[in-house]
Hints:
The complex is a heterodimer of chains A (about 150) and B (about 150).
Chain A: H1 3-19, E1 30-38, E2 46-49, H2 51-63, E3 66-79, E4 82-93, E5 98-99, E6 106-113, E7 116-122, H3 126-133, E8 138-140, H4 142-146
Parallel strand pairs in A: 1-7
Antiparallel strand pairs in A: 1-2, 3-4, 4-5, 4-6, 6-7
Chain B: H1 5-20, E1 33-41, E2 49-51, H2 53-66, E3 79-88, E4 91-101, E5 107-118, E6 124-131, H3 133-140, E7 143-145
Parallel strand pairs in B: 1-6
Antiparallel strand pairs in B: 1-2, 3-4, 4-5, 5-6
Amino acid sequence: MEPKELVSEFIRRCDAAVSGASGEDPYALMAEDVEVKVQGRTVLSGDYPTLEIVRMVLVGSLAARVAKAHVELDSMIGQGNRVATLLRITGETADGQVYNSKRDLGGCIFGVEGEKISQIVLFLDNTVVETVLLGRQYLPTLQEAEA
Amino acid sequence: MDKTPTAIAKEYLASLRRSAAGEAEPTEYLKFWSEDIEYTLPGLWPMAGVFDMDGYREVVGPQMKTNVEGDRGGDPGAGLYGYEFIEEGNKVCVLARSRGRDSRGMPYTNTFCLWMEFNEDGKLVRYLDEADFSSSWQAFYGVHLE
């Protein structure tokens, strides 16, 4: 498969997997030494090297909070073995909160080597991650509250 | 378009840096925007929304001045630096890092994913400006997470 075709199929499989539909395994399209980078400064942010760590640490953490989700491909461009996408990730948490109620798009970059996905750079909306997924809230700092 | 999307994006980032470093008008970069641009700042923070040029000037522009002033305080070399450009047709996706200062004057950095689509005149018509806006909210709006 060409890189864009591979990424499109991967996103289709991810959507099927997280929405509860039956489908083929998305992990089968990822290299064993895949590197996933989640951007930002949340507890989910950071580097997840190897498929095992992606499955057991990143996806395992998400599974603890996400009841169901959808991953929609809005746009995709490719240059060589790099593919950039705009994804609309929506869902519902285990306690019934709607994730990404505004249906915002987010960027996700893929690297492809040898017909496998070798890198993913994922930009989640971290204001939604913190409030909806992790149950935190933004409060005024002491100085601001006293002002 | 006379230039590639990547070339225009690099000029755009340079314009943003000139503004951030105080070497140009604070909104010089708007010359890269078409009037009917769809500009998106995702998320749940105060600047989030989908804006055209007028909406940007009415909603985002004032907050850039009142809240993000510290990020544009004139430090030499401050601003946004692209490190990967993925281009196809009239579109480019830019990965970038930024350097500035938060509302306390402390160093502030962020990571960006910019999705840019251009019209035949080389102006931005669709622009998703994405970063870790949880960090931005805390850096510029006097809030913290609990």
